[in-house]
Amino acid sequence: MSAERSQSLADCVDNLVYEPTQVHEHGIDLTVSAIHEVAAPGRLDFGGDELEDADLEPVPTELRHPDDEYGWWDLEGGQYVLQHNEFLTDLETPLQLQPRNELLARGGSHPSMLVRSHLPLVPLSVADGGLRIKENARVSTLVPTEGGSIGRE
What is the spatial distance between Cα 2 and Cα 10, in angstroms, rounded to a whole number? Predict the structure, then answer.
């Protein structure tokens, strides 16, 4: 992906934590703002009349040192819900959201998906050994889909 195309993609993403690190030739890395546990089930039916969100409880972070600015999530193996810091704006075509290789190599994962108008809450799977994630860690990458333009002209 060219620098021009990458910059066009950056124009479609608001609230980047640190653009020089997040924007690169392959896409844009997205950062984690919150991790939740499902406290009570949601509901899903055929017609949507009984559709109900799950109750989510935030997983707290802990500082490693008293002078740290950002805390860490100390996650046991299991399922969580991840929220990104960034927001999508002005999309013309869908983008592909995928987990970063760094997340995958450490036993974490989330599904790859097309995003069209906003970044949804994303299910996060953590392997049995657990995973530690620092606030604002880059966990996902947004990449353009084949042949599509990125932003509105």
Answer: 12
Backbone φ, ψ for residue 129 (5° rounding): -75, -10
DSSP 55-112: EEEEPPPB-SSTT-SS-EEEEPSEEEEEEES-EE-SBSS-EEEEE-HHHHTTTEE---
Pick among 3.40.30.10, 2.70.40.10, 3.30.390.50, 2.70.98.50: CATH of 3-41+50-144: 2.70.40.10
Task: Quick: pLDDT tens for 118-142.
Answer: 999 999 999 999 999 999 999 999 9
Which two tokens mark 22?
Answer: 């997040």
- Residue from 28, 14, 22, 23 nearest 90 by CA: 14
Whole-model pTM: value is 0.88
Q: Is 18 helix (H, G, I), strand (E, B) or coil?
A: coil
Cα(147)–Cα(79) distance, integer angstroms? 34
Write down the number of H helices and E strands in the chain. Answer: 3, 13
